[in-house]
Design a protein that fits this description.
Helix content: 25-40%
CATH superfamily of the largest domain: Periplasmic binding protein-like II
CATH topology of the largest domain: D-Maltodextrin-Binding Protein, domain 2
CATH architecture of the largest domain: 3-Layer(aba) Sandwich
Largest sheet: 8 strands, mixed
CATH class of the largest domain: Alpha Beta
Length: about 500
Amino acid sequence: MRRIILIIIFSFSLLAEPFYRSTSSSPNRINPLLATDSVSGEISSWIFNGLVKFDKNGKIVGDLATSWKFEDNTTLIFYLKKNVFWHDGKKFSAKDVVFTYNLLRSKKIVTPYATDFKEVQSVEAINDYTIKIKYKKPYFKALSIWMMGILPKHIWEKEKNPMQSRFNKFAIGTGPYKMIKPFEVNKDIVLVANKRYFEHPPYIKKMIYKYVADSATEFMLLKSQKLDIGGLTPLQLTRQIDKNFKKHFNIFEMPSHGYTYIGFNLRKKPFNNKQLRKAIALAINKQELIDLLFFSHAKICNGPFMPGSGVYPKDFKPLKYNPKKAKAILKELGYDSKHPFTFTLVTNSGNPIRIYAAEIIQQQLLKVNVHMKIRVLEWQAFLNTIVFPHRFDAVLLGWGLSLIPDAYSIWHSKSDTKGGFNFIGYHNKKVDKLIIKAQSEINQEKFNKIYQKIFKLIVNDHPYVFLYIPNSITAVSKSIKNVSPSIVGLEYNFIDWVKE
């Protein structure tokens, strides 16, 4: 009888339907240390684990680590899980963590992620399941940088050239899914469940990334139910899906982790005048932008940090659309219908939404006697001839939002350098001091309070007009159960998803 039951269960697992999704490009390297494109990063996240991760509420919790403690402000101790195995059956240990750090900081690889570890002084294995990390000084990212995926020492220590290793195409990790063969460019990628995954084996036994070259084909595959998950544009959601689509798909909508803004060149007159910048901000109807560009499927952006996160001030009162007040300020500055203020806004081609946004803003500003010209350039020309040489009045661009932001690269005065991200030339001594203070704060609540002050100071200076945060719209087949959206995204609990 038992044998019959086992045969039935085994047969059922063989018949279990794969989970189908799409990718419009091939990964470069499936390696957490080298994954700089979005596809490589996404697939790496299924295959590798860090020591810690975010939970549903955006709180840092253990991943490969069971727990941790700060012995003092510069010493962090991690206690590792003992029931973790690499995909090839070898056991995970502290030696893998030490090796990953040493490789990350070595001259064998070139990776932007090494800068996150710049304050690490040493990483030492106390025993097989205890890691001691010494920092040069208190560091606010002391814990979060260890979300970096860990590599297996027994595999990578034999590789003379890690940048060209075959294990960048056939990755071996500790994660919930594993590869069954090296990926091929412009081909489907198949991942299968890790039966020994330390949390529990994923309920979905196989995941297939269908290579789809263009978004129109992806949408067709989604509508024909050949994909289990796919993104939707506001236009597709409001105009191009029908009752039959909604019969087969649940639609999840949440703010994306990025915003669009107008950045002023604060080195130039009259943009160095805060009142002028405020007047332009007052004259832009952000809600109208959202209604026209996204069919209302976006949120107004009021500042540089993620809404709903700990660094976003709860008592903040945003500036509201007020063209009458904008006109009054401009008149005080000497601008009216006979002497309109004129400037040029530059943005990049290849992003039609931004260009449409510029055209709408152009019409809004005419109502307050501001004449805005629009210039559109190819991306590299935009960066090399406009942004980094600082040859602009204002630019229309986007930036990412993070649960643990690092304001230094954008808002600190010392980041106003050639090729730096503070290309608008923002300088505020109070903000500088608070950014430096926060860098040495390892207490999350105290860090949040400092960043809430930074948020208010930046917004009050009006260096940007913060415009909108588009919604991320995702369709998931109704055959998929246990989907539970959160601030960290839709798929944080993917191993609990079930396909019926």
